[in-house]
Amino acid sequence: MTPRGLDGLRRSAVVLDRLRQRWAATLGPDRVAAMEDDLRAVTPANPLRLDVPGWFGG
User: Among 20, 22, 36, 47, which residue has the least CB neighbours within 10 Å?
Assistant: First the structure.
């Protein structure tokens, strides 16, 4: 991961944390936690990795 890529991940984490706080303020923390649990249940256990050789055609 390049420094720019790491910076992008850090920035996206900040944005997602802020969104989660807003959702919790509107829906309540229990509903947000339940929504996250539901999303985990319907997503693959092995998420797509962007560092897989050949992913970018290389």
Answer: 47
